[in-house]
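We emphasize that the prediction below concerns an isolated chain of 170 residues; any contacts that depend on oligomerization or on bound cofactors are therefore not represented. The input was used exactly as deposited, without trimming of termini.
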Amino acid sequence: MWKPNQPGTSPSTPEPVRPTSPASPSFEAASTRPATAGTAASAAPSGDQATIGKSLVIKGELSGSESLYIDGKVEGAITLPGNRVTVGRNGQVAANIVAREVVVLGKVRGNVQASDRVDIRSEGSLTGDVIAARISIEDGAFFKGGIDIRKPGTAEPKPATPAEPVAINS
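Result of the prediction step, given as a token string:
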């Protein structure tokens, strides 16, 4: 608890607040987004997230080793296997996405493969097949496609073969 009349403090002359500003501009603060309720525990580490802004249009292949926030338009392929891809409210993606985690708040047309989870929020839209260990689709979200739930660490399934009858000895 703060007590105003402590020895060594003078209530009439408080220490001035000095704004701290870096010598060079910092872009790290601009790329971080405030976490919404329920995502604080799974948010990407600060500074490890790139951002594609509203006015940017990218055509081609995206790959890398950091998380990505997309608020613009992307056409092609997105491959970030160990990271999170977040399609923001203004984001429009026409691409296949391979990532650890995919969060959809905007529009995605293409197949999504996540080693951990896919999260389609209430204002999100995903048209395409999903392969993931976990999937969450909120009320109000749009989803059209197939879902393949796979346990973490499993490889591509073998082609289906007819099951052979098993003899049970009694």
